[in-house]
Amino acid sequence: MAPTTEPVKTVEWQGRQVPVWPMRTIKYDLLLSQDPEEVEKVLQACLQDGYFQLDLDSIDGRRMLEDREQLLKLMNRFFDAPLEAKNEYGLIDSHLGYEPVGNRTGAFGAGSKDGYEMLKVSRDEIQQGSPRVPSPIKNSGDLHQLEQVIGSCNTITKVILAALSTGLNLAGKDRFENSHRNDRPSATTLSMMHYLPAEITGQHKVGHQKHTDISSLTLLFSDQWGLQVRPPGECGALEMGFVEPQKNCAFVHVGDSLRFASGMKFQSCIHRVVPFDPTEHRYSIAYFLRAEDDTMFMDSEGRYVTAKDWHDQKFKAFTDPWFYQAQAPKTMILGGMVEAGADDPEPVTAYAPLPVQMPA
Fold first, then answer.
1. Which of 53, 71, 135, 231 is at 20 to 30 A from 330, Cα to Cα?
2. What gap in Å lies between CA 40 and CA 56, rounded to an integer?
3. Residues in domain Fe2OG dioxygenase (predicted)?
4. Is residue 285 assigned to a domain?
């Protein structure tokens, strides 16, 4: 987080004031043009913070914003379908298929489960014209919409990668784009998430646990509050804080794989999702750009592993019961990021029965 002397904004949540951490804003149109100042801004955001807001309000980005609105309509139809229809294939692979509510640890650790259902669509399968998606959205119109969104997200994240390569003065085979080629197998995925109201999930199925992403870059869309980040410890942040959704913007997170590929120069974004308003249905769209399966890097344990090995090992850690997660190295769930202090200054109640007041 960039140094600032301004007081941090707060919002009331669970009966206390919680920080709303500021985020740098990067303009996509300038990044697309490789504007030197914007390239330096995005580089510093990744070196110091591990996250930023991407402003897509330009002729180059508005198509993505339109695609997002159409995808939200598709998501509403899909998640309204009967469970047996949504779960037609189940979870085919760690980056592909449907996951019902309660498969993973929740936002508040031991004793809690996640409060969302999720559909994951493989970029590779969409590209090959043979996607395994459940019947409620397996028609030409919906498949075309999925292809449009994946194509737009892929372009945007590759533009960011190119800017970061340029900012670090990388050349030739060392540029990040060269380990993210479209024609090589990867676990790159479009994930669509539906967080259910607490009255449906119950008290102990809440949000999404604290973690860093497996991916190289995550492009995240949500107009609803609930995402919390924990800025790197050197910034003095001793707790989780919300980030405020901005109109016509996406959140971008640096994931483990890009941090490893940068030689640990970049920060990974520690984050979780909590029920800001436990009475609402919350929807988010995440595009996880991942390195080619056989990409090699040194991970946070000092091992040389492939991108696929890291993905599979960390996904298993995500889905392990809390007891086993607690025994695993912290470098697995948090990608080796160092914390300072507790996430919350006092224990958080897993269930808040009343909606909170939206900040002005």
1. 53
2. 18
3. 186-291
4. yes
